[in-house]
Amino acid sequence: MKILSGRELPEPCVLAVGKFESIHRGHQALIDQVTRTAKDSGIASAVVAFTPHPYRVLGDGGYKPLFTHNERAFLLERSGVDYLLEYPFDEALISTDPTAFGSILFERLHAHTIIVGEGYRFGHKREGTVQTLIRLAEHYGRNVGLFKAYTDAMEDLPVSTSSIRALLDGKNNDNKPQLEGAAALLGFPFFTMGTVTPGRRLGRELGFPTLNLYPPTDKYLPRFGVYATRTIMESRVFDGITNIGLRPTVNNDETVPTVETHLFDFNEDAYGREIRVEFLRFVREERRFDSLDELKNQICTDAQNLISLNQTTTSALSHIPYSLI
Are 14 and 82 a contacting pair, CB within 8 Å? Predict the structure, then answer.
């Protein structure tokens, strides 16, 4: 997959356009239709994803997408799409009327076919409809393919990023994050990825060395707390325990959250390595302990419980078809 930034694609293609924040199972089905149509037509396939996230431009500057640009590219690369174009979402695009937007699609993005959902809206004030798009495509001698909204077979509900965020936030279950439910809608466990960075080495002193990630400040993270996790490093998979938060026992003035992961059965130098931490199950809230000994005892308890819990959780998620490993 070629990753481009700008307002043009280099060749005729079948494309989809949108936010593509989570690349959930609905997105995956849409992109699969794009790649299949492109293959049948003998041309390239492309995803045009807006950046920054439209919500951040439209007024919610604090909005944090579920996945970073790198994480989104990682997911799309596994879909088989030929191009990812990160298209600037700005005031100029917001004010573009549907007819002008059509010229962007069919002239600058070279869309041979554009695949859209049945409720697709576009252009200034979302004035353009699917019928508008079909008329524009006919004018340019191009095509529009319709994608039926993807629904979860178990719940018979549309799969959406907002539903996934609600599960990760725990809004549907006594404020406890529902990682298993989110994974079912995503088609893979929610994750964060990055480079292992040296920390204060306090975990090593306590007997529980950790791999530390410092996600970008605009990256969504689940509720602060302890999670059962699975970490992928250079195609190897390790069960572990992860804390997301501000480490209140040892840092009273910390403002930037960290992701600290202790791996079971791992004793290597991982600094500088790229890892992906998949969150499988929420265990407990982050809390401040009165002493390091109390913190150590709690970590021991959490680790002992999670060694068996991770095996059960990993097995429970084995039915999810979208493998990232």
Answer: no
Maximum mean pLDDT: which of 224-233, 263-272, 297-306 = 224-233
Asked if omega into 158 is within 30° of 0 (cis), the reply is: no
CB neighbours (10 Å) of residue 320? Answer: 16
d(CA 57, CA 75): 24
pTM of the shown model: 0.85
Q: How confident is the model at residue 213 (pLDDT cuts 50, 70, 90)?
A: very high
Measured between alpha carbons, how far is residue 49 from residues 46, 73, 283, 312 in Å? Answer: 10, 10, 34, 36
CA distances from 253 to 47, 246, 249, 296 (A): 42, 9, 11, 21
The SS3 assignment for 261 reads strand
Q: How far is 50 from 75, CA to CA, in rounded Å? A: 16
Return the SS3 of 46.
strand
Which stretches within the chain are classed as H helix? Answer: 25-41, 54-57, 69-77, 91-94, 98-103, 130-140, 161-169, 179-186, 202-205, 292-316
The predicted pLDDT at position 319 comes to 45
SS3 195: strand
**Cβ atoms 197, 275 nearer than 8 A:** no
Q: Which of 108, 75, 156 is nearest to 324 (CA)?
A: 75
Write phi, then psi, for 95 (nearest 5 degrees).
-90, 0
For every residue of 109-138, DSSP letters joined together read S-EEEEEEETT--BSGGG-B-HHHHHHHHH
CB 21 within 8 A of CB 60: no
Buried b (16+ CB within 10 A) or exposed e, 254-292: eeebbbbbbbeebeeebeeeebbbbbbbbbeebeeeeee
Q: What is the DSSP letter of 222?
A: -
